[in-house]
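Technical appendix A lists one of the benchmark inputs used to test multi-chain prediction within the project. The record comprises two sequence entries:
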Amino acid sequence: MADSFTLPLRPIFEQRDHPDTLPVEIAQINNQWGSFREVNEGVLRNKIAEEEEKDGLDEVEESDQDATDLDSTERLEQLYKRRAEITQFAMQAHMETMFALDFVSLLLSKQAPRQAETSMSAFLKQVAPLGSLNAEVVNPPPKPESTSKDISTVSRGWRIQNFNAAANKLLQAASRLETEVASETRYWNEVLAVKDKGWKVSRLPRERQALGVQYGFLEATPVFRDRGLASLRRAEDGALLLDEGLIPSKARYVRVRVIQDGRLSGCSKPTRSTFDGDGTIEDRILQARDTVYEEELFHELVREARAIASFGVTTRQNLIQIPASDDLEILLDLVDTDENALQLQHNISQQGTSLAEGLAHTIRILLAYAHRQNLRRRTLLPPPLTPKTRSIPEHQLIRPALAYIKHMSHVRWLQSLLKDLFGVLQSANLKPPAYTAKVFSTRKQRHASPAPAVETVIGQFLTPLLSTFNGKILTPRGSFSILIHTNLSSPPFGTTFDVSFSMPEYPDFGSPGKLSQREEVEAAITHLLLLDVVFTISSNGSPKSEGEKDQAKGTWEAIYPQHGELLLSPSKSDKRKKMKISLSRHELSIEIYTVCCIDGTGRGTCEHPSYPSAPHTWKSSPFTGSPNQPSLMDFVST
Amino acid sequence: MHEQSLFASVPVHQHHELLQQLAGLTAMQPRHCLERRLIFKAYRKPGLAGRIGASQDLQQGDLQRLNKMLNGNMYYTQVVGPVSEADFGPTGPVDQDIHMVGMDDSKPSPSSYDYERQPWKLEFRDIPEAGTRSAVTSRLMSSATLPQGDVVQSMNAWGYHFTTEYVVEGDMFIHNDIAIFLHRVLHYPGGNELNVPRRQLPALKDMTLFEKSGSYVLQAFIIVQDGSNQETMKTASQHLFGLREQLKSAVLLEQADRLSLDTRAK
């Protein structure tokens, strides 16, 4: 642009018509410096050294002054002195101004006495009568030609200098404009690039002349919603700067750590790797967005954690501790993305990591879901205005995840319990029928909701969790079903086991109903299976005895099925035998006594262990039904 | 409950632009609404009014209240039922020609509109309060959900005649506490010769505009729970004024003429 700009701005230098003649210059030098004969290297060096010293002295003096200034009393003194000086100068200036005013007033009083009188001092009015001073234009004496020539030369020089200065300024302005245009172009191009990427670019509400980019979430909590707007400033060279105000520019994220058995077993990774300072503007916007999201997430997590403190959740300033289940603990904290690097240690297990990652994703998805719910709530017809302000309920972020973990832990426990018990039965060759487990058998809402599919899916996750276990038992037509409910969103909180039996043989044996402790559940199921075994033994004998009456040794009769006691009353002998069965998670044991009582119902006092009295036990083992162990039925029938 | 509102008239050419402006302001997509509105007029049941005899066992205050109740103003009231575009009939007989010969469904399929399952809401609006110093239209309002289906019978039982019906189409926006309803009134084709609400709806295209130019009415309103609470009423009108300021460059929201919103039955 500067090249095409051909307008001559600088004045054209022309040769001075008569330059100073050499003799004149020599005479000038002689006057100023003395004769040329006395100039030699030594003199010049001295001169230079002298000048340098003088400059140096000045500086030293100044620095000395600074040093001494430190003394406070001296400084105070100096301050007073200076102030006095200033006052003095001011007084003097005032006095001189008053003199000048008096003088002008007196001069003017000749022409306009009324006006001039007002500005005259009282003293002058007393001393000098009005109009006593007059001024007349006097023709100046004609200047000599040399003077007029000097004046014309000087004014010519001035003009040239001014022209030069003007030209310089114009050229400077031109080049400044040029760089300005270039940087503006760059700025707007980058702004357009940001806009083309789909970011919302708008004017800032408070600073009307600045541009801002909206990267936050409209449905977030107001504090974080308002922080989702950063202004796009222009650097000196036109580069785009993202001015986020008070937000720390560091990228932060909510870290999920899983503590298993008191040691760290898993840790979630940052959602996005950090950028250095040279990231593109897009990267920086993304980072700012992520940070706002993460901070809001943590804010909401803390809010929720306080609300569910009754579950044992504790919050510190920057840490949430959640005892999830058994020996599992979850820690949530907000950390810088680059802090994680040194944490990668050997203890981390695959399972723990995937749990931590899963949790990290879950809480983020749930926050996004909460945002959608906020939008839905916001666009509904508002309720009538009341003086009361409604409190915003805590979002469900931890609770669904925690419910899931608790629920899964209970389901696994029940599964292992059933597996153990059935294994014990199997080892005794009882062949229990299989049971069916339906984990997460929550009823699906059939009604078509207008919400998109993704919201429906998450909505189901927020409903109370339910798993069912159904199965038949050895008793014909008998069955059991166990329902596990976990609900952390609405009271009653926690997990309940709904155990129900159907045993036609013991109609008065009621189902235990809702239980909440694992011990109770274990006792109830064990008891059920014990009854089942007792019934099986007692019913197993009967058809046999009918068919082969002569051989039969009798039937076991369940006398105290609740205690697992059976009585054998053979027709021939008087001695009655009593069998006591006990079933636990680990073993099934049978003991046979001989009882002396007539009816055999007496307990405790007259019971004697029979000879081969060693109680027989079956333990669950991987080799079920091993040949060296007799089955329960064989044992019973011997 | 009280309703405070401001109104503006929106010419049809500005409608689209205003929709976009409102969508930007409220940060939401417009919610399209179609509403059937039935107008009922209260009438005095013969023999009830003006009977003052046998009042010796009534207290003076009770008597006054009873008289006021019996001889007070009669009002028009609206019954509003939300409908959807699918509820309206097919576009008209022209469509039948397009149907190919031999197809089974050559008859125009009746719309899925089921009058018996139409939900209704009773909406009562009083005449706007007179002499309020504030520059918003403030009126007493009340609404109640009615049983689905034929509403005329129950309304008759309460002393209301069916008068006429029309349809309102428009878009709803929500801005904090304020509901913004940009709507216009549609009439049924062929006038209202019937004395009962329609059981089938004609095609939406055949509906005629009440305002021939097709212009819309912008109504911004806040519903206040307790009209006697000056503080809340003031807050509500402040919010409306804030909205008026924000929309100043687009439309001019102002108080409606009080008598044009008169719902009293003469």
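Chain A touches chain B at residues 218, 375, 378-382, 384-387 (CB under 8 Å). Chain A has a mean pLDDT of 79. Comparable benchmark entries are summarised in Table A2.
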